Amino acid sequence: MQLRRELAGAIRVGEDLSRLSAVLWQQCRGEESARAAGEALRVLQSLPPGPELAVAQISVAASLRSAGRLAEAFDSIARTIELGKRLGRDDVVCQALVMTGIFLVDSGQDGIGSIERALQLALDANLEQEAADTYVVLQDNLVNVQRLEEAQRCYRAGMAFCEGRELRWRTRCMRGTQADTLLLLGSWDEAVDLCNEVLAIPGVSASNQLYPLRILGTIRGRRGEPGYAELLDSSAALAAGIVSPVWVAQARAVRAELQWVSGRPELACREAREAYEQALGRVDPWKLGSLAIWLWRLDAGVDLPPGLPEPYALEIAGDWQGSAAAWERLGRTYDAALTRIVSSPDDAELRAALAVLDELGARATAAAARRRMRELGITPIPRGPRAATRAAPAGLTAREQEVLGLLSQGLPDREISRRLFISERTVQHHVSAVLSKVGVSSRTAAAREAARLGIVP
After folding, report:
1. Which domain holds residue 337?
2. Cβ contact 335:327 at 8 Å
3. Among 7, 308, 367, 455, whose CB has the most other CB atoms within 10 angstroms?
4. Strand residues in 338-405 grouped as ranges (E)
5. In a domain? residue 75
6. In 3D, which of 120, 136, 216, 211 has the Cα closest to residue 168?
7. H-assigned helices in 67-167
8. 8 A C-beta contact, residue 77 and residue 96
9. Quick check: 37 and 53 in contact, CB under 8 A?
10. Backbone phi, then psi, for 158, in 5-degree steps?
11. Are residues 419 and 369 in the same domain?
12. d(CA 261, CA 253)
């Protein structure tokens, strides 16, 4: 930047300021990123309009979004689309369509179509970088609107596209979002694998740590494992640094839930209230609902907005059965169980929810369920699986049993990696753990043990 300014090349100064803004964002330095974007726009507005100005406008629009100024952000992006078309720059139009889709989703409207149009434009024009970025955004926003099966299809297509072109930063983003999808769908061991893969990457950026830290903290907290609070605090701190209410809302909604799980409703209410006030008008309806529901459950006396997604709206209306069913239609069995625990007075419903939690290994949440059953005078209360049953054969986790089953077929690590959608390094880690737990030193011997333990592919 110093050299550019000495050379008095205003267009290159603006271009580098936009690059600086992007890098600062990746390091979760949101305020500095917004300042760099604003300065880039000021520098470039004095010059004839070009693609550099369009990039600056997109960056400023993203900053306006974070500040909750969606109307101004929409105006900025509309001007950018016009500029891109006037310049004949498909890359500019693509980026602006992507941002339009994000803004629409944030405001509770259908923005997926805009992002899909951007992806098709990028693929047709052979814009590899833009296509990769659009896969990342499309997957993330499909999760945001709870179209989870489509998000997984997008993940597979996007990963194939990016890995074939060595666009590794995007694959890290997509792994994080896939881990979030697996968390929602109850595939917690697979989610943990993906998070650990991302965090083990040397020099992984701060922004790429946001998803893994929150997801690991969520799963550990629900399972009653140590260290969850530190993980969630780290994720919330990075989100605050990026000045993104979207990321902050996710971390603090989980913290509110786990405060309630641990029997501290006052702290849960305070956590949810503070985050809700920050998020109102600045995040999509699903993230707002994840905070609003705790304010309702804890009787915080807050007027909640209309138009919340179906599961939240039904529970707030007193239809907890309809809410639980809505969660189950989405594949989110944990959330259905949690709804029943908090709201249902019915013995059979509570026992069914408890069984789901025990199956997931959500020991802390299951303990909260048993606490509520005692408060309601329900007896006898299931004690839950014994330690030996919970640990499974030879103490193998669910994922390790999957790996052992595939080992018994004589499959190499590469094929196991392909079938389970995890890296070869993670497969090697699991194989080592399996051999140790079943007490053998070779894959052939492990296959024999698999047959003895009744573990099949």
Report:
1. 327-389
2. yes
3. 455
4. none
5. no
6. 136
7. 70-87, 90-106, 112-124, 128-144, 148-163
8. yes
9. no
10. -65, -40
11. no
12. 12
What is the predicted pLDDT for the residue at 391?
Answer: 52
Please tell me the predicted confidence (pLDDT) of residue 39. 97
* Number of continuous H segments (helices) and E segments (strands) in the chain: 26, 0
Dist. CA 269–CA 273, nearest whole Å: 6
344 φ/ψ angles, rounded to the nearest 5 degrees: -85, 135
Q: What are the start-end ranges of the E strands in 11-72?
A: none
The tens digit of pLDDT for each residue in 355-409 reads 999 999 999 999 999 999 999 999 899 887 654 444 567 778 878 888 999 998 8
- 47, 15 in Cβ contact below 8 A? no
Round to whole Å and give the CA distance between 133 and 139. 10
User: Of the candidates 389, 406, 433, which is a domain's last residue?
Assistant: 389
CA dihedral 238, 240, 241, 247 (to 10 degrees): 60
Distance from C-alpha of 228 to C-alpha of 363, rounded to nearest angstrom: 14
| Residue 88 placed within a domain | no
- The predicted pLDDT at position 389 comes to 44
Task: Give whole-number Cα distances, 194 to 219, 332, 342, in Å.
Answer: 13, 19, 30
Please confirm whether the linkage preceding 265 is cis (ω < 30° from 0): no
102 token code pair: 């994000």
Low-confidence ranges of the chain (pLDDT < 70): 385-392
What is the C-alpha separation between 280 and 303, in angstroms, rounded?
Answer: 12
Residue 418 falls within a domain, yes or no?
Answer: yes
> How many structural domains does the chain have?
2
